[in-house]
Design goal:
It comes from Geobacillus jurassicus. This is Thiamine pyrophosphate-binding protein. Pfam families: TPP_enzyme_C, TPP_enzyme_M, TPP_enzyme_N. By secondary structure, the protein is of the alpha/beta class. It contains 21 helices and 20 strands. Helix 1 crosses helix 2 and helix 18 runs parallel beside helix 21. The radius of gyration is 24 Å and the shape is globular.
Length: 551
């Protein structure tokens, strides 16, 4: 469908493009360089501007919203200062393959190149971390290039696009603006490709599927489950793509993330045919690019052909949308002979994912309580940090969009991403997990959540340190602590100062009581979990690390 509009301002044309993309929320911090665009949004009742406390928080909100809603995240900011602040969200969207469009007000066209107030070459600044960057100089090209920005953000491997708009451009009038729908192509595999996969699987004895974000973006989770069930295929989740496959399913055999259990890695190493489905086979997923061996057959199916052979040369490379590929793979003529091996690997995974019933650490108790009391469709986001190891290892993720995490490992992500997810799913419970280090980086966005009536639940594991770095410090320089100790902050009280609710807990019972109250709260809530600093990871304590180093 196309619409033609006459004699509208540049700002109005951008809003019309947002409407065409069915964008409900845009995130940002107001700036004088793009005030006409804010004013045009004011006149459009279908779009709400979420004013954040920091552009980094706004970009994380947009990225989380995009992951949850399946639409492009949209961020607005001003010039170099706003752009620099939100660059962390652009980098996250690039590494996580998340569609995002960033509109940056630029200095007046007359001042470009003169090092004007807050000027930077925005195209050059963002080119290394964005999928595409463009600075628009002519009003008549705004509809064309803004729609191109959305198309590029959504097409192929999704990613962030940055659009620079000189402030004098906004007030110019466009004689004729054509606003059209932008569709992302869905390439399908050739019949020859399907036959090649069929032939490899017929000869396979231990096949394994590694499923990534491409499965989620194409909406192919159900097809993956049907395919796995029909051919008894064991399935692993790529790094921080937990909800790509239900964990209680007999075909699920683990998550290839940071600190992946030995049994899970062994499953991947034993496989003779590996089908990488919608994953770029990242550093973490492949355990520092050491997971796969030349003796294994690699079938790589992805929407991004640039990823083929970047690390591992595939025996079969198929450029296709995961949904289109799986719909055709459901009809291959293969009789599985690997059921016994698959069942054994499932059993080994179950052993690694079982929470201890007695002598639980507080981290384990929190995950157990979340598993018992959260609604089945609750959405969990997480920040970067070792606390997430317990979530990754033990939480039983189910069907649907229930997990949002940064494969970029960005600190400060969890709580703002939860705000974006809650806007996408207003009727679902949304919970973020953070450490005290990461939470403090974007804690100001709790006020945004309170002001905008976005009742999220934030769980903060407070051990008064940058725990992940402390772990590496203890491994490499035991006992020589520098820079990783943090001050004592009461996040429960801080939440109340930012117009939310706060609880501080030290036991499983206290946590469960706080969680049940938080589920009924009508405003953002923080549950501060005071954890033992010695419990540095799922597998070790600080004392363990020091003893190991000495031995």
């Amino acid at each position: 469908m196309k619409r033609t509009m006459h004699h509208i301002t540049v700002a109005q044309a951008i809003v019309e493009c947002l409407k065409q993309e069915q964008i409900r929320y845009v995130f940002g911090v107001p700036g004088e360089s793009y005030l006409p665009l804010l004013d045009a949004i004011y006149d459009e009742p279908s779009i709400e501007f979420i004013s954040a406390r920091h552009e980094g928080g706004a970009s994380f909100m947009a990225e989380g919203y995009a992951k949850a809603s399946g639409k492009c995240g949209v961020v607005l900011a001003t010039r170099a200062v706003g752009g620099a602040n939100l660059a962390i969200g652009v980098h996250t969207a690039k590494q996580d393959s998340t569609p995002m469009v960033v509109f940056l007000g630029q200095v007046n066209s007359r001042f470009l190149g003169r090092e004007g107030f807050q000027e930077v070459d925005i195209e050059a600044f963002f080119r290394p971390v964005a999928k595409w960057t463009v600075e628009i100089r002519e009003a008549e090209r705004v509809p064309e290039l803004v729609q191109r920005a959305f198309r590029i953000a959504k097409t192929g491997r999704p990613g962030p696009v940055v659009v620079s708009l000189p402030e004098d451009l906004f007030r110019q009038t466009i004689t004729e603006a054509v606003i059209a729908e932008t569709h992302a192509p869905k390439p399908a595999p050739r019949q020859e490709d399907i036959r090649n996969i069929e032939g490899r699987l017929e000869r396979a004895q231990r096949p394994l599927v590694i499923a990534g974000g491409g499965v989620k973006w194409s909406g192919a989770q159900r097809l993956l489950r049907l395919w796995a069930e029909k051919y008894a295929l064991p399935v692993m989740a790529a790094f921080r793509r937990h909800d790509v496959f239900p964990h209680n399913h007999p075909c699920y055999v683990g998550h290839l993330g940071l600190g992946a259990p030995k049994a899970v890695i062994e499953t991947a190493e034993q496989a003779d045919v590996v089908i990488a489905l919608g994953t770029r086979l990242s550093e973490v997923t492949t355990q520092d690019y050491r997971l796969l061996s030349p003796g294994q057959t690699l079938i790589h199916i992805d929407i991004d052909s640039d990823g083929f052979g970047k690390v591992y040369a595939p025996d079969i490379a198929i450029w296709a949308d995961c949904r289109e590929a799986l719909s055709r793979l459901l009809d291959i003529a293969v009789q599985p002979s690997w059921q016994e091996w698959a069942a054994e690997r499932r059993k080994r995974y179950e052993q690694t994912a079982a929470l201890p019933l007695e002598k639980r650490t507080l981290h384990e108790a929190v995950i157990a309580s979340l598993g018992r009391h959260l609604p089945k469709n609750a959405v969990i986001t997480n920040d970067a940090g070792n606390f997430a190891g317990w979530l990754h290892a033990f939480f039983p993720f189910g069907d649907g969009h229930t997990y949002i995490g940064p494969t970029s490992g960005a600190m400060g992500y969890g709580m703002p991403a939860a705000i974006g997810a809650k806007l996408a799913f207003p009727d679902r419970t949304v919970v973020s997990l953070s450490g005290d280090g990461g939470f403090m980086m974007t804690v100001q966005e709790l006020e945004t959540a309170a002001r905008c009536d976005i009742p999220i639940i934030s769980i903060v594991f407070n051990n008064h340190m940058y725990g992940t770095i402390r772990m590496h410090q203890e491994l490499q320089f035991p006992g020589r602590v520098i820079g990783t100790d943090l001050g004592r902050v009461s996040f429960a009280r801080l939440a109340e100062c930012l117009n939310g609710c706060g609880f501080q807990v030290q036991t499983e019972q206290q946590f469960t009581e706080a969680l049940l109250l938080s589920l009924e709260a009508k405003k953002p809530t923080v549950i501060e979990v005071l954890t033992d600093p010695d419990h540095i990871s799922v597998a070790a304590t600080i004392q363990d690390l020091r003893a190991k180093r000495k031995s």
